[in-house]
Amino acid sequence: MTRPVLLVVEDDAGLARQLRWAYEAYEVVVAPDRAAALEAVRQHRPAVVTLDLGLPPDPDGTTEGFATLHAILAQAPTTKVVVASGHGARESALRAVEDGAWDFYAKPIDIDTLGLIVGRAFHVHALEAENRRLVGQERPGFGGLLYAAPEMAAVARQLERVARADVSVMLLGASGTGKELLARGLHDSGARRMGEFVAINCAAIPETLLEAELFGYEKGAFTGAVRTVAGKIEQAAGGTLFLDEIGDVPLPLQVKLLRFLQERVIERIGGRKAIAVDTRVVCATHRDVDAMVADGRFRDDLYYRLAEIVVRIPALRERTGDAALLAKAFVARFAPTLNPVVTGLSADARAAIDAHGWPGNVRELENRVKRAVIMADGRHVTAADLDLEPAAADLDLRAAREDADRRAIGRALAQADGNIAGASRLLGVSRPTLYDLLKSYDLHA
Ligand SMILES: Nc1ncnc2c1ncn2[C@@H]1O[C@H](COP(=O)(O)OP(=O)(O)OP(=O)(O)O)[C@@H](O)[C@H]1O
After folding, report:
1. Which of 170, 201, 363 best tests ligand 1's pocket when mutated (most atoms within 8 Å of CB)?
2. Residues where 4-aspartylphosphate occurs (predicted)?
3. Dihedral pair phi/psi, residue 391, rounded to 5°
4. pTM of the predicted model, to two decimals?
5. Domains of the chain listed by start with CATH number
6. Local structure of residue 196 (DSSP, 8 states)
7. pLDDT by residue (tens digit) across 104-147?
């Protein structure tokens, strides 16, 4: 069985050697500086990294160590980085943990203690990977939410905690980030889940009708009010009222909403009696409500009633790895009914999904995948089916050159019937040069 890779970022060669001997259970890869560390992360994808904060060119400080920490986490966010702090450098170790390091240990190194920390880091990494795999198999988390990104895991944890508390929640996020899904999640995990979840999109209803939709009306309240109708707020009694696009509610109606939130009673339009309504209120908007409050377009007293807890939902492009995971899940969801031949995504589709910016977030992804599943000719959905630009090829210059060399040599040899002299003439290089190239690329004439 292959041993898991432990990357040791350490400029002290003696210490690095000592660690290599101490940890037989791992394949210890040593990197003496940031560049080597990043190359090793790219090549080995280690689950765990130990990082000395004092790296050259700043071996007595921590700047280079922190820069390395940030770069490793940017490249491989799920990696567990264990930071080494020198004498009296506890503050920097704690700061490193705040910045995303998994744990720290004090120098001089105690092999057994560090071994325990590293062992635990591997264990937790494996558990998390398993969890991501399960989620990837459409085992949804909070509210049917699919994610692997740590950014979304934090949101889900926050909402789980908030769901049980009787507080108002404001969800802030761009269109299609899953705000309604999360609002439903709050309802389903909350104390009023036996009641109804009633959603109203305040931006989709003309201002003149919005009041009637929300508060209802009595028979004869206005022309056309031929019978008494309960509004959405009343319908949500005992359940959850989801006010989507709350930032689009006009000021006069904001006053009426505030009154309802303060007194927990409503009056239907044309009605004279106050009706008590007990409902949980969750709202959402893609607008910058803080700015709206600042310039008077949104009442601050209403804001404070609605936003006891504010949760920001990251855009899809900010969720590391989630676009690919969701795309896979949506293919699995749509293919059985829409095009059962389709079983997955092609490599170019996966690369294009990774490279796209997803301005329409999860909704855009869902729609593109749905359409692509219908359009796909073969077993795999391609970038073209998704109507996405194929991603730029790997930008590794050496690999690109080698690839071009190999192809040119192959064609020259074919044209010259395998004759080295002829092929070298066609390629414009000397015979010894061609021999060298054949050898280094492991090609045969
Ligand atoms: N993390 C997720 N996992 C699975 N499905 C998701 C996720 N996020 C969003 N969706 C799906 O994407 C679509 C859009 O989500 P939703 O309607 O909740 O977004 P929204 O933020 O409320 O958008 P808008 O502001 O435009 O109303 C829905 O079909 C929803 O089920």
Report:
1. 363
2. 52
3. -70, 150
4. 0.61
5. 5-133 (3.40.50.2300), 145-312 (3.40.50.300), 317-381 (1.10.8.60), 397-440 (1.10.10)
6. -
7. 888 888 888 888 899 989 988 888 777 666 655 444 567 788 88
